[in-house]
Amino acid sequence: AKMAAAASDLLTGWCLFGLALLAILIFCWVYVRKYQSRRESEVISTITAIFALAVALITSALLPVDIFLVSYMKNQNGTFKVWADANVSRQIEDTVLYGYYTLYSIILFCVFLWIPFVYFYYEEKEDDDGNTCSQVKTALKYTLGFITICAVLLLIGAFVPLDIPNKKNSTEWEKVKLLFEEFGSSHGLTALSFSISSLTVIGMLAAITYTAYGMSALPLNLIKGTTSASYERLENTEDIEEVEQHLLRIKSKCRDGRPLSSRDRRTLQQLEERLRTLRRRERHLESIEKSWWTKFCEAIRPLKIVWGVFFIIVALLFTVSLFLSNLDKALHSAGFDSGFIILGTNLTNPLNMLLPVLQRVFPLDYILITTIVMYFIFTSMAGIRNMGIWFFWIRLYKIRRGKTRPQALLFLCMILLLIVLHTSYMIYSLAPQYVMYGSQKYLVQGGVTVATYNQLGNIFRSLLYVSVLFPFNLDQCIVTRTYLFLHKFWFFSAAYYFGNWAFIAVFLIGLIVSCCKGKKSVIEGEVDDDDSDMSDDELSVYYH
Length: 544
Known about the structure:
- The protein contains 18 helices and 4 strands.
- It has 544 residues and is mainly α.
- It has one domain.
- The chain has a two-stranded antiparallel sheet. Strands 3-4 form a two-stranded antiparallel sheet.
- The protein is globular and about 100 Å long.
């Protein structure tokens, strides 16, 4: 009966996973179609963007699943469930590990091959309307550089030894043999981990730039709302009248046949461009004012305020927990050479305090972790949407509803893939024991006492240090597969540590800036001076 119940629970879990996968695909399709340009849409770039965005969301959802599976195999008294024998638990571990292998390999494929190829193919298609074969060759030529970088990262991760042999008189052949033995024993895990960690560093920079700002901008924008379309339309009408009067004054100077001065001609040209922009704004505002979507948003305005307050609470919880966790590492870690590995929890943070309480009521702790992960992803989307795609101080692309170019969507999805890689380490920084062991408990001293691994870290720090390097009590507790991809290389962990401080600083700066800014325009970023008149049709189609 217990085996049947366990099988039924697992079947239910897989059904829920299938429904979640379907929901993710529908969301990705709606999101991409919402922002892509109607005039410049391309089938191959649309499919690539939807696929890459779905991979990013599925990868982020794998962390809560991993934590749930290792916790589900044990009872509350610290013993394994009847069905969770050594073979079954190993099969579950291998399944999750193969899931990580697959998703991380797909991310490498997307970042280093597929997305660059589609991007350069579309660029060539815009520049040259020649034959397809020439476009494919040129795109492959540029993509070859990305493939070379990927191959170099895999080779470095595969053959750079983590443990240097102590034998000083060992021959060169023995050293080469050791490299191949380490590569064979890890089954390529180290090579993949090094490549993923390298991309995670780039994802950390993207998270500092976009996610930190999005975590402050998204909640405050929901709370403050946007200006009224009718009020903006009234102001815009006044601006149109003012510009038209100015144009008439300048044109009146040449009624008697006298030519305009160069200064007046420049002013006239600027005013005409300004007038065209204001008239486009007038058409957009009129379309928005009459749309059913605007009326619906006004009806759910109280709900938006509630969501904004909830999001700012989650952001503050996340930031305070990250600050205390980093402060704990600064005061009590093993130092820079160890990647700031923390030996237990000395300074507790709100998330560490909340998770043990939520563990008592299933599945509140998993809901919290899933909420934080999803919040991290959606605030990243908000940050990219508000800031656009930048290369240092140069703005490459804008993300706008119904007017985003295919190249910008490809960049957006690539950035999200990189940010997702950094998400796992961010959650690990907040609750390391929970990410490693979930809500598992184990028996101490022959079953006399039941303790969690978080309690173990505060009691036996030296034993926990052993468990960090070589998972402790493998016969009693199972380590999540996520941890196998973390702390493989100490220099990456050190980079993540300093990146966390930069993330906190950018979040606080973004919070101050967002508080000082007023309400956003109802057509914020939708109308620019460099837009063509044909772009008006795209937004009209979107709102109607």
